[in-house]
Amino acid sequence: MVGLKEELLKSIWHAFTALDLDRSGKVSKSQLKASGGRRVLSHNLCTVLNVPHDPVALEEHFRDDDEGPVSNQGYMPYLNKFILEKVQGNFDKVEFNRMCWTLCAKKNLSKSPLLISDEDAFKVWVIFNFLSEDKYPLIIVPEEIEYLLKKITEAMGAGWQQEQFDHYKIALNTSREGLSAWELIELIGSGQFSKGMDRQTVSMAINEVFNELILDVLKQGYMLKKGHKRKNWMERWFVLKPNIISYYVSEDLKDKKGDIILDGNCCVEALPDKDGKKCLFLIKCLDKTFEISASDKKKKQEWIQAIQSTVNLLRAGSAPPHKEARQKRKELRQKLLAEQEELERQMKELQAANENKQKELETVRKQLEAAAARAAEEEKKRLQTQVELQDRFSLELEREKMVRQKMEEQVAQKSSELEQYLQRVRELEEMYKQLQEALEEEKQARQDEETVRKLQARLLEEETAKRAELEKWHLQQQQTIQMTEAEKQELENQRMMKEQALQVAMQQLKQLELERKEALEQYEEVKKKLETAANNTKSWKDKVAHHEGLIRLIEPGSKNPHLITNWGPAAFTEAELEERQRSWKGKKATSE
Which tens digit of pLDDT belongs to each residue from 553-582? Predict the structure, then answer.
């Protein structure tokens, strides 16, 4: 039951970690106590595991929880105590895994397109839980990845590319210890190790590996079975598992026809051909005997060996081959890891012992060097003493000769010293004369230097005065320039004002010309109206004089043309307007 509990915990771990986490990385108590959390992580688990669900226990368990699921009152302790300890093994593993897969797949499954279907991804996820290490977070190590990829490749009927996987393994080992479930799904779904295979082939291979590793299907296939009552032969789909052979109507496993319970007392025997049936073999159990016909001799032999191997495992009390192989691989990895750790420990001990030996050797070497140095020093002293004695005897023998020679040398030296003294006196007198001449030259040079310094001071004063005068002229020039600029600016402003006045006058002139034209037009209209009125008046007067005998002349007004403006008759004549025009043109020419 311990192994079953570990397998269940792996699937539940995926569903558990798929819940929304708070900032501290824990699932909050409120989330777990909420109806959704209870229903997903408690009720559904109890349902698929065939365990009675007790919601009161869940509420009691989380009553005083302040630390989240990692505390003594967390969800995992509740899961172990109230659910997993009650599991008896009478549940559908596929349904259980599918429920956990539903809770975690949507959040973790890669969004990129894969070469496998969601159903195949689910099967790979279940296989990952079977092959992963028993530590969290769950990973699958490179050795198990290689085992799984080999199984899938063999199921596809393709050749295994060991060199390609070795390159991938080297790249993987440099970055991490293994892959997560979702990375394994993405690796298989990417087609990196199934190039040239279609989706259906890959799917069938994954299904075959799933049946073997998860559903414990050791062998399956169509064979003929002889009935116990009717004694007729019917084709059935047989599925061999570690302790049972189930047979169905077809390979979809929907219509199950019966089971052959295997134990250590069962046996399988080959039968000779009879009744027109070939490739016969017999399965003997305690209560029943089953006659089966395979499709060919190879299939017959394969089934006999598979069933006999299963019976032998039951007799020995061993696990199924794939589980035993997985356990052996884990034990081998643990052994290699232990050996590696032991080797590293021994290497460290050897390194420490080597360092100690090196230190001891270094100490001995230093002691030997010190002893050799002392011996050399003693030998040097002995030789030095011998040489000193020889030198002393030689000095004593030559001492008298040296004293005589020394007296002679002293006499010669005194004579030489006297001559040198006289020569030195002469040289000092000559040097005194040269010194006097040098002092005179230095005095003259100082006088010349003082003269030059005064001349430089006078030139500096003159230069300062000239500089001040030049600066004064410069300031005057700048002031003059500024005044010139101001005058220029003022003239420019006047010119601009004149131009603006001229433009205004021209605009007024144009306006007057327009008004004049309009007045002329109005004058012509009025003139025509006056002429018409005069003609009408004259005709009317003629009629009156004719009828009434009255003769009276009515004189019209002046016939000289008058200018008319928008406000009535103008205050000036056309001649006066032309005179004003000539005056404005003259002013404009003068300003330009």
Answer: 444 555 555 566 666 666 667 777 788 788
